[in-house]
Amino acid sequence: MKRREVLVVLALGPALAPRFAHTQARASLPRIGILRFGSAPSGAGPDPARGFTQGLRELGYLEGQNILIERRYAEGRSDRLPALAAELVQLKVDLIFAGGSGPQGAARQATTTIPIVGVSGSDPVREGWAQSLAHPGGNVTGLTVTFPELTSKYLELLKQALPHVVRVAVLIAPADLPDARPVLLELEAGARRLGLQLQVLPVKGPGDIDAAFAAARQHQAQAIFAIATNVVATQRERIAALCASDRLASISEFPLLARAGFLLSYGADLDDLERRAIVYVDKILKGARPGDLAIERPAKFQLIVNLRTARMIGVQLPQSLLLRADEVIE
Fold first, then answer.
1. Structural domain tally of the chain?
2. What is the mean pLDDT of the chain?
3. No. of H helices and E strands in the chain?
4. pLDDT tens digits for 204-253?
5. CA dist., res. 110 & res. 27, Å (int)
6. 212 and 320, same structural domain?
7. Handedness of CA 252, 258, 264, 266 (dihedral sign)
């Protein structure tokens, strides 16, 4: 090396050292990938990652300081999930957080070695990727909100809210429910017990929703039970608006749907579930194996009633239901 080049390197050395140290420090930080079905937060509506972000903060994780995050959004297209999951695997993230059954399924297909923490409606034991809820084995753990035995509860709530209802349409996205049979069997049994007529409306994606509502009108449906898979959750405002336009009573599983305009919701709070999922993330980053961490089911369910929607569709809800509600949206 020439004498002039040596002098330049020596002169720049102190200036380059902090940058090099910063790069090294970032490279040593744990990196997690987030895979979601919907779109990135726009600021116009609720942030789907609010609970996740809160959980990180509560456990002392600050993005860019002691953790790195790679985010991938499928923009409501299931067909994009496999490629996005593969991207996260190629980045060699330390862990993948999957928000929903579709993202979790894509992550499982993409890797059997990188730990996956999911919050989804899948049934891990029935689907064969967990040995048991207590000891899943493999590389996937987290929280599941699947309760096939409680599915008919939604029909009971509809009947309590509106005793005159007979015809109920069920909006379901089969791609987000790898095994929908237990859910449909429980619904059919509940409908027979309550004297209801069910119409199952399968949707593959957002483009099928208008046709599903046209079929519901033809069947003269009086209410909609929308099973809260990724398609329904990401299209909740649109579905709520269609229900209101057709004066249909609507019910689903998560509070964010009632807050988006559904008449009723009964289920666990997704923000809370994602916040609790960070406990799994923290344990795995500290050395725990996902297969040793029990898959958790939510213990608390909330009944939310949207009185604004009730007035919009012209129904009066019984006082007994309002008294039972955990939250009433005026």
1. 2
2. 88
3. 14, 12
4. 888 999 999 999 999 999 999 999 888 898 899 999 999 999 999 999 99
5. 23
6. yes
7. positive
